[in-house]
């Protein structure tokens, strides 16, 4: 079973920051997930929400402010470029695209990285939106796509077939062992988010769950064996 650090290692350091990615690397996460949005002057930055909050409680919508304005309110605001360089090919970076305005700048940046020594296997591209995934697949067919869906296995597998990917990610709240086993028998690679319970992960691994997205990769590090990429606790 693969362990994916959620927004780096959200439970161990501020999410979507270099510090969080370094924590995920230190605890041997197999992949590192992050969320990408676009500033007013089209800089790709990491933020799960549409806005960032500062220590005084002010909220700034990412798309309405430039990078330096946002950075002044959130000093650890991280660009996607910084994230890529901090991970530096040590693990694949799983990039979740949060809005359609991200698509073209992201394509441009990843093509630059691919020309600069990075491999397609250094990246994964995820979204909840079919049109976003289609645009990314058309421009970057060599990079693996991940179909995100909160609850519908029917919708997720339909999109996966249309996009030519077998990898799905679904909310753990809607998953159960029988459903996981059925998808696994059908050849789907199912990942659950967000799982911080080792016992639950172990039980679902036996049903065929391919991996988990977790806030605490350290919980899955100490007893993880050398064959973790092939599955098993």
**Helix percentage range:** 25-40%
Tell me the number of structural domains: 1
Mean pLDDT across all amino acids = 95
Any idea what the CATH superfamily is called? Phosphatidylinositol (PI) phosphodiesterase
The backbone outline, from C-alpha atoms, is globular
Highest-level CATH class? Alpha Beta
Within the largest sheet, what's the order of strands?
A: 1-2-6-7-8-9-10-11
Q: For the record, give the distance between the C-alpha atoms at the N and C termini, rounded to a whole number.
A: 8 Å
Low-confidence stretches: 224-233
CATH topology: TIM Barrel
Strand elements, count:
11
Order of helices and strands: EHEEEEHHEHEHEHEHEHE
Second-tier CATH architecture: Alpha-Beta Barrel
General description of the model:
By secondary structure, this protein is an alpha/beta fold. It has one domain: TIM Barrel. 33% of the residues lie in helices and 22% in strands. It contains eight helices and eleven strands. An eight-stranded parallel beta barrel has the order 1-2-6-7-8-9-10-11, surrounded by five helices. Helix 1 runs parallel beside helix 3 (80-87). The protein is globular. The chain starts with a strand and ends in a 19-residue tail after the last strand.
């Amino acid at each position: 079973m693969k362990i994916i650090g959620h927004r780096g290692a959200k439970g161990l350091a501020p999410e979507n920051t270099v510090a969080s990615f370094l924590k995920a690397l230190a605890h041997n996460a197999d992949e590192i997930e992050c969320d990408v949005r676009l500033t007013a002057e089209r800089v790709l930055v990491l933020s799960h929400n549409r806005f960032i909050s500062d220590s005084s409680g002010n909220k700034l919508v990412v798309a309405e402010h430039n990078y330096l304005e946002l950075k002044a309110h959130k000093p650890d605001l991280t660009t996607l470029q910084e994230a890529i360089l901090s991970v530096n090919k040590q693990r694949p970076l799983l990039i979740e695209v949060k809005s359609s305005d991200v698509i073209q700048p992201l394509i441009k940046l990843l093509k630059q990285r691919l020309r600069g020594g990075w491999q397609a296997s250094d990246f994964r591209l995820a979204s909840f939106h079919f049109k976003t995934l289609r645009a990314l697949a058309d421009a970057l067919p060599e990079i693996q796509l991940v179909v995100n869906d909160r609850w519908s296995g029917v919708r997720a597998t339909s999109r996966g077939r249309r996009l030519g990917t077998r990898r799905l990610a679904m909310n753990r709240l809607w998953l159960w062992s029988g459903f996981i086993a059925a998808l696994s028998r059908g050849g789907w690679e199912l990942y659950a988010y967000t799982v911080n319970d080792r016992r639950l992960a172990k039980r679902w691994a036996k049903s065929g769950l391919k991996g988990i997205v977790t806030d605490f990769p350290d919980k899955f590090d100490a007893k993880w064996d050398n064959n973790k990429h092939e599955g098993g606790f």
